[in-house]
Design a protein that fits this description.
Elements: H1 3-9, E1 12-16, E2 25-30, E3 33-40, E4 43-50, E5 53-62, E6 65-69, E7 89-98, H2 102-110, H3 115-118, E8 135-139, E9 144-154, E10 165-175, E11 178-184, E12 192-201, E13 207-215, H4 222-241, E14 248-249, H5 262-274, E15 280-281
Parallel strand pairs: 14-15
Antiparallel strand pairs: 1-6, 2-3, 3-4, 4-5, 5-6, 7-13, 8-9, 9-10, 10-11, 11-12, 12-13
Protein name: Phenylpropionate dioxygenase-like ring-hydroxylating dioxygenase large terminal subunit
Keywords: Oxidoreductase
InterPro entries: Cholesterol_7-desaturase, VanA_C_cat
């Protein structure tokens, strides 16, 4: 798969549906291009500015998010069947504009090693700092990177958690700028809570991180769920904006991985072998 061509032909997130007010024209940037969209009734009309000529964009509403594409025939979006389950709460945790490559934002989302140091007494705590071995595979049929058997002891791993829990994670990377986390559901251990990081590449060194929750939770209000997740993202923010360089190096020689970085290493290799350049440093 040629990621560079696919990137411009694919769907990209630009807003949480809850944030779109009918009759208002919204302006943003996507892949370095000026785009705008407006919802009139049940229909979203979108366009992009091509050197003064306004060309149509294709719009899709799915997973609590508005997606746009420059292509007339973009490939199908990845599947997240949990969003169709009637008893789940779909809540936006907000959209944050960040001065870093969207690839950096995704890689930070995949990193369990920082939990005790950045999310102290929430997602981790000293002296429990080791990341246990986990499995990473490439599902070639759908071209996704999957990490399973990820475990980490967390003092409060979820808004519904009432005590410390050995939280289990599954990570899916479905696109270079899209990652989905399945995590232990404290209210129903037979199911997974689903946390999605949908990243909008504004340009190569700016992004908007759209976070969507798809939870089994009849305890917390939307505001409580949103506050918990925004607290986590706020703690990550200083890490993200201080990353140097802002674009993500894909060469194995640029940054030295450790055992805990198995997933990040697979993510970089996947993009490198797929020929991605946008938002990355390939030398």
């Amino acid at each position: 798969m040629n990621f560079e061509q696919q990137l411009f032909d694919d769907w990209h997130p630009v807003a949480a549906l809850d944030d779109i007010v009918s009759g208002h024209v919204f302006h943003t940037r996507l892949l370095g291009r000026e785009v705008s969209y407006e919802k009139v009734g049940d229909v979203v009309a979108a366009k992009w500015n091509d050197n003064g000529t306004h060309r149509p964009l294709y719009a899709k509403e799915r997973y609590g998010t508005l997606w746009l594409s420059f292509a007339s025939n973009p490939r199908d979006l990845f599947l997240v069947p949990e969003f169709s389950e009637s008893d789940r709460r779909i809540v936006s945790a907000g959209s944050a504009r960040v001065n870093t490559s969207g690839l950096r934002a995704i890689e930070n989302f995949l990193d369990m090693a920082h939990f005790p140091f950045v999310h102290t007494d929430i997602l981790g705590a000293e002296p429990f700092t080791d990341v246990a071995p986990y499995k990473v595979t490439h599902d070639e049929q759908v071209d996704e990177i999957i990490a399973t058997e990820c475990r980490f002891p967390q003092p409060r791993g979820s808004a519904t958690a009432t005590e410390a829990i050995d939280m289990e994670y599954i990570y899916r990377i479905t696109r270079p700028y899209i990652a989905i986390l399945y995590k232990t559901c404290p209210l129903d251990p037979s199911r997974w809570d689903v946390l999605c990081l949908f990243v909008q590449p504004v340009d190569e060194e700016w992004c908007v991180a759209h976070t969507l929750m798809c939870y089994v939770d009849d305890v917390n209000s939307d505001e409580q769920l949103r506050h918990f997740q925004q607290t986590i993202f706020g703690q990550d923010l200083m890490i993200l904006i201080n990353q140097v360089p802002k674009r993500l190096p894909l060469s194995v020689n640029r940054e030295t991985p450790v055992r805990a970085d198995v997933l990040a290493t697979a993510y970089r290799r996947w993009m490198r072998e797929g020929g991605l350049k946008y938002g990355a440093i390939v030398d």
